[in-house]
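Notes taken during the Thursday session

The instructor put the following on the board and asked us to keep it in front of us for the whole hour. The protein is Peptidase S41. We were told not to look anything up and to reason only from what is written here. First, the residues (482 in total):
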Amino acid sequence: MTSKFKIAGWVALGALAGGLTTLQLGATARNTVAPLPLEEMQQLAAVFGMIKTDYVEPVDEKKLISDAIGGMVSGLDPHSVYFDKTSFKEFREGTTGRFVGVGIEIGMEDGLVKVVSPIEGSPAFRAGMKSGDLITKIDDTFVKGLTMDQAVKRMRGEPNTKVVLTIFRKTENRSFPVTIVREEIRVQSVRTKMIEPGYGWVRISQFQDRTVDDFVTKVNALYKEDPKLKGLVLDLRNDPGGLLEGAIAISAAFLPKDVVVVSTNGQLPESKATFKARAEDYSRRFGTDPLAKLPAALKTVPLVVLVNEGSASASEIVSGALQDHKRATVMGGQTFGKGSVQTVRQLTADTALKITTARYYTPSGRSIQARGIVPDVMVDESVEGNLYSALRMREADLEKHIGSGQGKEEKDAAREKAREEAMKKLEELNGNGKKNEPPKPLPEFGSAEDFPLLQALNQLKGKPVAVSKTMTERKPEENQAQ
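Then, after some discussion, the predicted structure tokens were revealed:
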């Protein structure tokens, strides 16, 4: 690749990182132990001993073991992670949607912290941080040389304390400081509004513990405002994923009872499963059926699903299920392509392993790993075209990503060409006598200037849609897992 992303994985500073996750927090790791390769274990023990006796200064034994486990897991794929005491606490906080921090989802690129997405409504979001920003300094500490965990720890802190982040913004070719006050953030993963009389908009920004309950409450409020809705837009753009049960439930809200929503397949017997639009497959987390309170009209209301390159995992399950059952028209850009399931298993009371245990498949049997959901109608992200979409990272950009498992995959040369053209276009916009002035930012999702939303509304009304003239289906890229 001409533009190679070096991503350590999704990390939200307190928020759930993108991914389809099943939680088994009460369960400990399996008691069965596979036969160990004796010679390699002897080498590991020898290295451990040399470090203990020969290193320039004493090293904590527990840290050595923890680092060894972390290294073993990180070599698998971008989404398998060893959680130490601190990171496990942060992960559990993230699933609740409540945390103290600056409010960004991050990755690593060339040794720097890269902003994948600022969380809507967070201090970072209000401070104007953008996807693609590179954090070069945290207060007085240079990020280069820090691990992901070390960077995260420096950005986290107590409520009402300040942290100064030095940002390098590629599109503006400049660095600048941003002062952010940390706060406890309660992420609202569901937002709704009436776009205009008869047409509603439901945005899900993440699949968290409260997403389904909030969805039910806010959809009921829409129907109370207009009991005869003519159409609905389900907006999953930039939704990085989350909990499996939430994805099944949101799909089931629109689908007939008992149809297949998603299936999974992996090495373990329990990873070979089929999940359907029925309460027993999504209500274990909720106790009772939260969808029972929804209006019956939701099953038949005309529906458009908006997606883009940032729609990943759980949001791909929902869009894939609704697309396969022809329940909705999927519009926008081809999605991220994260088609794997991670299971979290506790090792001790304070540590855990998040490990990839299965691939997931849409109802028709499609694996979208490293490919994504292809919209029924390709729509540009703005009236000017796609200045940013080609530059967004996706599953196939992550080192050691697993393949789809459905045959040979080829590199997508068009993807690299699109990136180069997008960068050239951005440079031209910055060079027209307005040096360092960024191109016009994309409008906020749900606003009156939101171009894809306007096209979705046209689709629901039967009016002409401005279909993209440049976007084409991405081919899956070759499997990079070793």
